């Protein structure tokens, strides 16, 4: 990302757990209490979604990496990832979390970053 001049940013909807998150995240963190960045239709998961196989598998993956679990705060709001180009390029790539703990393909993100046009 550095070689392409891409900046890493995070947008969170609450302050709980942010200090712990920052120890794993090297970019700037912005607080969006009104959840405007999450779009007109927020994607919420139910507590029953915690029992899905994919969620359990993702939890085990995190456990193996010895990343501490954070069960504090509102954890049902699903997140995502955007690669946004400068100027009028807008959103080049977007990924919306489908269940707790899933993430975008690193390859897809790298391709999107390479497609950013320098202005």
TrEMBL record:
Signal peptide: none annotated. It holds the Pfam family AhpC-TSA_2. GO terms for molecular function: antioxidant activity. InterPro entries: PXL2A/B/C. It is found in: Cytoplasm. Keywords: Cytoplasm, Redox-active center. GO terms for cellular component: cytoplasm. The keyword Cytoplasm applies. Belongs to the peroxiredoxin-like PRXL2 family. PRXL2A subfamily. This is Peroxiredoxin-like 2A.
